[in-house]
């Protein structure tokens, strides 16, 4: 079956709402007692939540981490949501498409008439998440519309959503703090902090001992100064950062080589892996770096990770991968090369978690596929340089929404696709550059983004970040990605 180029045009919607549109509040068709469908929330409905009545409202029992939802028995199309609050208690909120976890909008207040004009989407359920409020909020209206009037085709440029924090600041290759999702909820500091312990390891046995004997009440930094192999690792097949928090493993200069043995982060939070060279891992999980949830606030920065294309494609697994409920991860300034299966997030079509991963300023060279392969959740891929991609690049699947921004793709085949899953994924493409790119039809269940690459979703981000102009990306990434580029 011939591929289709997946092009869903984004509409430039008028802020005006016509009387005809207001006559068709799609939320009223949601199930439940509330006239706005809002009785699906976990809080209290004061009487029924009546349409066009600010005196009827849904109110949670708490003022943080609450949710009100509108749900339909089958997916509908929509492009506008109107929120109305009785009072002004809400101080932070976000609107989420429950079908794929995409954040549609966010803000610090709602007020008496918040009109959100969106790109047209399809959804069976919308969630209004009340992140924080000064007191238990009163949500009087959660209205949903498909506005078919006043829409015009946009100019062929990438969309910018007014709720999205603009890029800010200078790009710094050797930052002490991560950008992206790992910056959320207090950031990612690893083994730094009060009463921190630092040890230096020259063998794998010393790394294993430092992890096994650590004081769980004190942050730990392991500085690696030597070649680590299975032979000098005391019988372990991988290094488990497991059931512990606040750990860094950092290479010393150009001296830290994990040769044939990898690292797994499992049931751990606030972890940094930095300035390490990892290669030819064929033991343990057979990934150079594996993250398995529950795990959050992980920063993988300035590493060189590689295998070989001179072996069968299943001889090694991924260079860096994650599965289950992994969240708030940033992968930055890594040199990832010579790999068949490179970076997998979600190990099956049933691995349904809202993973949030940022990839920025990575150098992907001589790789076959999975750059990354992303199931479910949200990804942000910006300022990366891709070259010599043989099969597929970024593969968005199972409702994943990936913002792909100011990247350079050179000498690549199928740089952005949705292949091989039972449900498609989506992309929010902005400012990318394609050179010597080939688009090829392959599986019947797949779609390609090109050659006329257009966004088919919008992903708003909960953080600000520094963004390089696309024409500066290649030189900057080649100069700064990989090991021994900074003083750690």
From TrEMBL:
Pfam families: Pectate_lyase_4
GO molecular function: lyase activity
Signal sequence, start to end: 1-23
Keywords: Carbohydrate metabolism, Lyase, Polysaccharide degradation, Secreted, Signal
Family: Belongs to the polysaccharide lyase 1 family.
Subcellular location: Secreted
Protein biosynthesis as UniProt keyword: no
Name of the featured protein: Pectate lyase
Disordered: annotated span: 149-170
Species name: Rheinheimera soli
Sequence ranges assigned to domain Pectate lyase in this UniProt record: 211-415
SMART domains documented for this protein: Amb_all
InterPro entries (UniProt xref): Galactose-bd-like_sf, Pec_lyase, Pectin_lyas_fold, Pectin_lyase_fold/virulence, PEL
Main location: secreted
Top-level taxon in the UniProt lineage: Bacteria
Biased composition (Pro residues): 156-168
């Amino acid at each position: 079956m011939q591929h289709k180029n997946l092009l869903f045009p984004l509409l430039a919607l008028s802020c005006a709402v016509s009387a005809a549109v207001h006559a068709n509040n799609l939320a009223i068709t949601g199930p439940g007692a509330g006239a706005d469908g809002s009785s699906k929330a976990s809080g209290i409905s004061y009487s029924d939540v009546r349409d066009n009545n600010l005196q009827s409202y849904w109110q949670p029992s708490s003022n943080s981490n609450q949710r009100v939802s509108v749900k339909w028995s089958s997916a509908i199309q929509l492009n506008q949501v109107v929120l109305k609050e009785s009072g002004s208690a809400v101080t932070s909120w976000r609107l989420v498409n429950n079908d794929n976890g995409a954040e549609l909008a966010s803000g610090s207040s709602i007020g008496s008439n918040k009109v959100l004009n969106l790109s047209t989407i399809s959804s069976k359920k919308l969630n209004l998440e009340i992140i924080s409020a000064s007191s238990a909020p009163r949500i009087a209206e959660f209205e949903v519309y498909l506005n078919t009037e006043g829409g015009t085709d946009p100019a062929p440029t990438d969309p910018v959503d007014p709720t999205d924090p603009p890029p800010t600041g200078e790009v710094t290759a050797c930052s002490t703090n991560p950008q992206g999702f790992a910056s959320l909820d207090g950031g990612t500091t690893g083994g730094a902090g009060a009463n921190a312990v630092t040890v230096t390891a020259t063998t794998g046995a010393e790394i294993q001992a430092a992890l096994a004997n650590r004081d769980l009440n004190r942050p730990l930094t392991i500085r690696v100064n030597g070649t680590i192999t299975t032979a000098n690792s005391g019988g372990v097949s991988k290094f488990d950062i497991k059931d512990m928090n606040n750990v860094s493993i950092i290479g010393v200069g150009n001296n830290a080589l994990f040769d044939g043995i990898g690292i797994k982060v499992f049931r751990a939070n606030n972890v940094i892996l930095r300035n390490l060279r990892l290669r030819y891992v064929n033991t343990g999980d057979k990934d150079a770096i594996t993250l398995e949830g529950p795990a959050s606030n992980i920063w993988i920065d300035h590493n060189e990770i590689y295998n070989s294309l001179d072996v069968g494609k299943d001889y090694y697994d991924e260079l860096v991968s994650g599965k289950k409920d992994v969240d708030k991860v940033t992968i930055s300034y890594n040199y990832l090369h010579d790999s068949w299966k490179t970076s997998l997030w979600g190990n099956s079509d049933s691995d349904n978690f809202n993973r949030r991963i940022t990839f920025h300023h990575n150098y992907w060279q001589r790789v076959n596929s999975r750059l990354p392969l992303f199931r479910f959740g949200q990804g942000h891929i910006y300022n990366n340089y891709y070259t010599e991609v043989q099969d597929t690049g970024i593969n968005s699947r199972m409702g994943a929404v990936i913002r792909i921004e100011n990247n350079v793709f050179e000498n690549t085949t199928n740089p952005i696709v949705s292949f091989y899953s039972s449900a498609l994924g989506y992309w929010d493409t902005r400012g990318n550059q394609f050179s010597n790119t080939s688009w090829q039809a392959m599986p019947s269940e797949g779609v390609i983004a090109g050659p006329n690459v257009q966004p088919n979703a919008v992903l708003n981000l909960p953080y600000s970040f520094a963004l390089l102009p696309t024409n500066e990306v290649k030189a900057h990434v080649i100069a700064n990605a990989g090991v021994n580029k900074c003083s750690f």
